[in-house]
Amino acid sequence: MPAADVKNDEGPIGLSDFGDNMDIATFEQILEMDDDEDEREFSRSIVFDFFQQADNTFDKMDENIESKDLAQLSALGHFLKGSSATLGLTKVKDSCEKIQHYGAQKDETGTHDEPDVEKCLDNLKVVIAQAKKDFQTVERLLRRFYHDDE
Where is the HPt domain (predicted)? Predict the structure, then answer.
């Protein structure tokens, strides 16, 4: 059972509840920069800025799927991959890396060329949907971690 499904009750959670959605060591480095462990203002601001950034980036990805702009999709995947990696959001990072590769007309590993644009777009649609799902999971967990259940 995925960690996100283990604790469906309301209330705060700990880092161990993130399971394979997060690289805990990376996220702990950000938490170490907080002056006050109860308020966690510094890390909270970074995380909540990421939520907005991810929402905006996914909107742009949807627009670029419609316009079939593979280069822009690759750039957006690269951008969001970096932000999610900084926070240790492993599943989001991995999906965004695939978006970057498919947008560059490569396979999901980035090692082989894929000249078929429509195949790349089909792959992008699937992996963007997965990235959004992974993001929603980690956003829900992080909101509970920061005691901000919407």
Answer: 39-145
- pTM here? 0.88
Q: Is 138 left (phi over 0), alpha (psi -120 to 50) or beta?
A: alpha
> Which residue type occupies 74?
S
CA 59 to chain centroid, in Å, comes to 14
Task: Provide the terminal-to-terminal Cα distance of the chain, rounded to the nearest Å.
Answer: 24
β-bridge mates for residue 99, sequence order: none
Reference 76, options 98, 56, 40, 100; nearest CA is 100
Residue linked to tokens 């980690």: 138
For the chain, domains (ranges, CATH) are: 45-143 (1.20.120.160)
